[in-house]
Amino acid sequence: MPYQNVAELFLLNARRFPNRIALVSGDRRLSYAELNEEINRLARGFLALGLRPGDKGAYLLRNCPELIEVYYALQKIGAAAVPLNHRLSAAEIGRLLRFSRCRLLVYGEEFQDKVAAVGDLPVDLLLCRRAENGGKTAAAAGPGAPGTAAGPGTLGDAAALGSGEEPALFRDAAALSRLQFTGGTTGLPKGARRTHRADLAEIISVMMSSRMGAKPGEAVLVQCPLGHHGGHSWFTAALSSGAKLVISDVFQPAAILAAIERERITYLLLLPPGTYLRLLDHPDFARYDLGSVRLVQSSAGAAAPDVVRRIYQGFPNCEVNYGWGQTESGTGTSLILSRAMLAEGAPALSSVGLPMPFLEVMVADAAGREAAPHTVGEALVRGPALFSGYCGQAELNREIFLPDGWLRTGDMMKRDEDGYLYMVSRKSEMIKSGGENVFVQEVENVLRLHPAVEECVVFGMPDAVFGEVVAAAVKLREGASLSGAEIRAHCRQHIADYKKPRLVRFISAIMMDEAGKIRRGEIINQLRKEEAAWISD
């Protein structure tokens, strides 16, 4: 690959389409030339403040143009980006900054108190993104030297130190581009090291899989957090393909519907998947012209057929795409679900699709060999988009990286004769009940087939006789009613009797993070403390 820096794909479009709109955020509209000039000012400002290739710059920002500008400015000078989830506590932010040895922290003004609560900030440079005047310029900074941890400057202060001229571009495909902390669903967040080469392969794979860039006039609306791996994939793919990127920070149905109509959106990414139902249920939905949408992207789990059916009714010219992926794998699997497949009830509807470009997936048995069709095994992946290991965790890296470049994903899957992959469970979430293995996702998928079930969480509860029994926390759709006995009868129609939930709990809400992933650890820990509320078999 001739490219050595992830910014080169964006730069290609800045040269080809300088006057084309690159970024829309609220009332702000930036052309490719204008966005590139803003990035250059920041890049040169960072250099003037002493950032050098190999340094790390963290950002604690909601979805805004400055997040994108900071990211590309760091890439251009060879510093690595460290996105931080703004929902983290001050203590967690401090730990991650110290662990990653960041020299720079850029944060939104709305997080001023949280950043102050960190205490002794382990960074050399501290810059605040002000809310007024487009986020960069503002009143004078607090006491201390501008841009130092002793007294923060503004992001505008840094940009004022540079010019819009193109800086010398750092080019080393093997260098660290991004340190992406995982969501921590299986424990504390881990810093996934992603190189320029890996992220370039990921961007191109996403573009090819979604066919982004295949036609002129494309517009991509992203509402999920840009600091998460999925949001990062989509904003970099959009700007690398020459599309217009429209970003939204919070879910406001009327504003999103108006943006789809006004900007002629062709690609739509909202999270979690249930957000599409909230959009479809807006009382003024039918008033908007949504015919421009060609692809609706779902993530964080396969969309249920009834949800897909409603999406097709609301967006008359779209296809739905969903799949599986990890920060570690870079890309993953993808399934563009056609209307014909939905009408036919094709078996592949319950799959996570086929491997995306450049990614090999092997379902391995206990001996590490390719498992037979329909046999559950661990998914191993291989390809140029893979990460290069967890920061500071040499022992764990030796466990997950196998000979010949294979990476253990920790996800249990099976494959059919046509190559479609089916997610069964996280390896760590397998329930051992009475000597039988029960895969969590298999039970959850069956529960979601019931028309009264909106969402669920399945896990193991300790049991003196069986070791563990299957427990299910179920959120019903509005106005629906269901009993524990009806839940178990439904499950018996689809799966073996020993897999059915012996314990059932109906709950009013299921906590999710901003990427649309269920906060399993928090939910399970809470529910295990409330044994009296469970309905037993």
Structural overview:
With about 525 residues, the protein is α/β, with parallel strands linked by helices. It has 3 domains: about 5-170, Rossmann fold, CATH 3.40.50.980; about 245-365 and about 380-425, Rossmann fold, CATH 3.40.50.12780; about 430-535, 2-Layer Sandwich (GMP Synthetase, Chain A, domain 3), CATH 3.30.300.30. The chain has 16 helices and 26 strands. The strands form 6 sheets. Strands 2-1-11-10-12-13-14-15-16 form a 9-stranded mixed β-sheet, sandwiched between helices. It has a 5-stranded parallel β-sheet with strand order 4-3-5-6-7. A 4-stranded antiparallel β-sheet has the order 17-18-19-20. Helix 1 (about 5-15) packs across helix 2 (about 30-50), helix 2 (about 30-50) crosses helix 3 (about 65-75) and helix 7 (about 195-210) packs across helix 8. The longest helix is centred in the N-terminal third of the chain and has 17 residues, at about 30-50. It is globular, with a radius of gyration of 24 Å.
What's the CATH class of the largest domain, please?
Alpha Beta
In the CATH scheme, what's the topology name of the largest domain?
Rossmann fold
Widest beta sheet: strand line-up: 2-1-11-10-12-13-14-15-16
| Number of domains as seen in the coordinates | 3
Task: Give unreliable regions as ranges.
Answer: 137-146
Q: First CA to last CA: what distance?
A: 59 Å
Q: In which range does the helix fraction lie?
A: 25-40%
CATH architecture of the largest domain: 3-Layer(aba) Sandwich
- Give the tally of β-strands: 26
- Biggest sheet overview: 9 strands, mixed
Tally of individual helices: 16
Query: Kindly state the mean pLDDT as a whole number?
Result: 89
Strand percentage, roughly? 15-25%
CATH level-four homologous superfamily name of the largest domain: ANL, N-terminal domain
The radius of gyration over CA amounts to 24 Å
